[in-house]
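Margin note: ligand = flavin-adenine dinucleotide.
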Amino acid sequence: MLDAIIIGAGAAGIAAARRLHDSGRQVCVLEASPRIGGRVQTDLQWADFPVELGAEFIHGEKAVTRMLVMQAGLHLLPVQRGGKLLWGSPALPLTKIDRDERKLILGLLADYARLKTAPLPGDLSLKGYLMSRGWDQAAIQAADVLLAQTCCAPVDALSCEDLRREMLADHAGGLEHGEARILEGYSALFNWLSTGLDIRLNSPVQSIHRHQDGVMATVGTEAIVARTCIITISVAMLKANRIAFAPELSDEKLAAITALQMEPATKLIYKFKDRLWAPELTYMAHRGTAARWWTPAYGRNGADPVIACYITAGRAEKLDRMDETAALETGLADLAALLGLPRARLSAELAAARRVSWAEQPWIGGGYAYVPAGKAAARLALAAPEDGGLFFAGEATAHDTNPQTVHGAVETGWRAAKEAAAYIRARML
Ligand SMILES: Cc1cc2nc3c(=O)[nH]c(=O)nc-3n(C[C@H](O)[C@H](O)[C@H](O)COP(=O)(O)OP(=O)(O)OC[C@H]3O[C@@H](n4cnc5c(N)ncnc54)[C@H](O)[C@@H]3O)c2cc1C
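Resulting structure:
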């Protein structure tokens, strides 16, 4: 009998499978889609360098993914976004924008950092906390772009308790410091990490039955049996009941699945004939719909000039509702405003453009999960094992590290692998 069935070949599933396999356990990974990686997906064809359709950065000097990149013999491309923000339309360094606007941006960032230690009268939303610090609606709009968009959450819902938990638990070195891209592309890391594993693609799990002898997962008419099962699918997929559980999951688990939320996340990616921005540009943002932009080709001398907008939550939902041409037009208009260039010039220079909507991905269903105010215990409850050898991993379960990241997802995979191995040992199975 297998020691573990792992559901999902994303960062968490591959990390869990690697750990168990390398310690001599028999594991099999069931992946619904025709590829591995989940929310890690690199396109090697679209430009003359690897373009990230999903996760792009390694966040933090001590993120575990850095160590894996080294072990894999891959290479890091450092990029500094923190402290390099250009803001407004046109986007300018903070030293050159209007004095009041600069005060607002720096003040918001300082209040956000204060969350780590600030006394809170209960679990406020990020908006509630900022308003308690005296910020007005114009400031809240800026906070939505600068702080909540990163978390794939509406500013008036995001839990400050969960943000504080993450700040205190962070051991990667802070999300805005020590950032890097992977020269060969993020997918190269998971191709390497999955070498030699038994991964069955196009295998959507429909049900999981727990019984005395172990766990049985069904894929179509096939039944796979193991001593334990590790579930790594996204919160959106758990909410959609894509897997039927028998017996049903515990009330605590169901409450956590109900509490956690997953909003859309969308990238608009543009390739131009010539670079229309300064080579040192790494990050710019404004209050528009296509709010946050960065430069995937940064640090790759002579690479195709590609620029990407990454938006989440309400902004992404709005762009997802448009047809692709209209969404890309909206992005181009915002890009012209940010770069201070005529819209017609951008159209004339455009070589290719595409939209990547993660809410539309059938086995993902959004960006990454956030905790709404008042539900700060949800991550821990989602991560807790269920009776009968059922374990949970995936970015949303990262209660003791950074959720919403690749390195956080990897750590949850390692945690669940350890739990499953201990369960097997304790029962001498
Ligand atoms: C657009 C975008 C940008 C991001 N940028 C960054 C970034 O710059 N840096 C960073 O660190 N993180 C980033 N993230 C977050 C990061 O990608 C995720 O936190 C991480 O990849 C999640 O991994 P996971 O294993 O938890 O889940 P997933 O990657 O979702 O893996 C779960 C897998 O389960 C499969 N599955 C679902 N249902 C079933 C089923 N019934 N049967 C079998 N298989 C199933 C799915 O197909 C999927 O492959 C980004 C995410 C997005 C969407």
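The two ends are 10 Å apart (CA to CA).
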